[in-house]
Fold this protein.
Amino acid sequence: MPQPPTHSSSLDMAQPEPIDLSSGKYVKLWQGPQHPGITGNMSLELTLCGDEIVECKTHVGYLHRGFEKFMERRTYIQNFTVVCRIAVPEPTFNEYLYSAAIEELAGIEVPERANWLRALNLEMMRLASFLMWTGGMSGAFGLYTVPNWTLTYRDYILDLFEELTGARIYHMYIVPGGVRNVLPDGWKARALEILKGTEKMMREVDRVMMNNAVFKARSKGLGLIPPDMVDPYGIVGPNARAAGFKRDLRKDEPYLVYDQLDFEVVTATASDAYERAWVRQQEIFQCINLIRQMLERMPDSGPFQAQMPNVLHWKIPPGETYLKAECTRGEYGYYVVTDGSEYVRRVHVRGPSYTHAIAVMERLAVGTNIADIAGLMVSLHTYPPEIER
């Protein structure tokens, strides 16, 4: 793997002076929680000197939580209504990883056609999630035209999900053994038309947001993640790729049909808020291209669901496994343990938000102006329920 570019170290920072609130030099301020979005599902306990943040403590647990223990008390099939809630803007990755882990432990082979439909759903979900993030990032810096554009096209993607799965947010389309159904008549043509409009809209976003002088001035240099911070802090996904790390599980450890698709890993040279936004913007165009490849190359016939036992009374042999995939924010993994009963023995979800929203956020917030804290939070792209899973 090529070595990432060299930057000055952020790990050798001098110890901050003790904070004495009684001195009158510092003031404590709470940011959030207020729904919707990343900055609404979590709260930051900020200590300021003037308008500069000198200490940040993350508080979560204001939304969904406790999924992992809850799943131990539900049958395997019942848990599909649970896993979707762990990362609301992109539930499909939870559906896929939970299904894949159960299939591996139960020795179930998924049909080829189902693998293509699963990958298609994952990339559609990636696109919808990135569109939502782009609107949030722009809005955090006061550019409110962009959210109107991107959330509109996210809704068009959700229309496609609704037509395919019957639901807009929690689809429960990927199930053990395959998927629930195939593409409806005319769906492919409608999807291609929406992709065309999304691509055109994103070029306008490039002009209005990425080339905006105010956005550049406020986001460049904000929350810089140098390469030597990436591995010690467990930083993954676009946050790491923006620092020069060419890491993407779809390339490094291909799953489903990604080894049959043509794409390159997007990287930048300095992971600040601007370059993290640039990487995600390029990955939107990449995602559109991948969906087009899948729609062109996926089989039109064949089974989409393996032969399954009665899932209402399904006992899976004892075992354990860990499976991972590349979600919009990086490595997303499921560790699943079974004991031969009708219930899962243990589930542990490894999501990027735990690291990005706590350890990384608390470090990068120090020295940030209070006006830019929302932009910094959004630039790390975290989902708080995933922390309190």
